[in-house]
Amino acid sequence: MLCPSPITGRPKLLNILNAYAEQTHQSELADAMRRIESLLTTATLLNGVALDIVTFGMPVRYGWDSSGIGKLLHVVNHRNLRTDGKNWLAKMELPQITMEMPMAWGGDYVQELAVAGSDAVPTTELGKAANKMVWEMVEPYDGFERWLECARRAVRFPSEGRCLLVDYKDSTGSTNPRDHYYGHAVYTRRHAMLFNLTQIVRTFYQI
After folding, report:
1. Residue 78 in 3-state DSSP?
2. pLDDT of 55 over the 60 cut
3. What does the alpha-carbon distance between residue 100 and residue 91 come to, in Å, rounded to a whole number?
4. Is the pLDDT score of 200 beyond 90?
5. Domain boundaries defined on the chain
6. Which secondary-structure segment (H or E) carries 166?
7. What pLDDT shows up at residue 137?
8. Cβ of 35: how many Cβ atoms within 10 Å?
9. Beta strands in the chain (DSSP E)
10. Would you say 166 and 78 are in contact if contact means Cβ atoms under 8 Å apart?
11. pLDDT digits over 88-97, tens only?
C-alpha cells in the first residue's frame, strides 16, 4: 500500500475494497477508502515519513516492498530442533509427534503453519466474492495441497528486513495450549515487553 511506485496492484485492491464497502452499505468505510486512495495517489498519506515496522510472529507469506517503508524487523519465537548442526537455516520441520505442538517445543507454530492456504473463509456471499478477488491477486493457488507445500517449505523469516530469533522460554512442559497458544502468545506477555522494546531500540536506533 505504501509503495511509491505506481506499478503495483494498489488501485485494483482499493477498487475491490471500495466495491465491497458499497455493496454492504458501509458508507463510512467507503468514504475512508476514498480518502486513503487520494492520499496514497499523491504520496501525502504520511507526509514523507517512513514507517519503521516490527512484526512479531508474522507468517512468511507475501514478501515486503521495502521501498515504501523505513526499517523492518521480524521477531520470531524459535527453538532450534535441528540435529544436523545447521542452525543458520532457522527452518522448522512440520510437527513430528503428537505432543510437540501442545507443548510448543519448537517455538511459534502459528507463525510456521499460517502460510498460504490457511485462511478462514468469509460467511457471506459478498465477502466470499471479495475475498476471492483479493486472493487471486496475492495467492493464485488454494487447497490443502497448496498449504502443505508452503508449510513444508516454511522458513522462519522473509528475505526482506532483519530477523531476530528468540527463545522466549515459553515451553514449560504444560500441554494446555492456553498457556502459550502454540508459542504465539509470548510476544505480548508482560514479562516480554521490556525485552522486545530493548531489542527494537538496539536493532534500529543504537549507534
Report:
1. strand
2. yes
3. 16
4. yes
5. 50-115+154-207
6. strand 162-166
7. 77
8. 11
9. 53-56, 72-77, 162-166
10. yes
11. 555 555 666 6
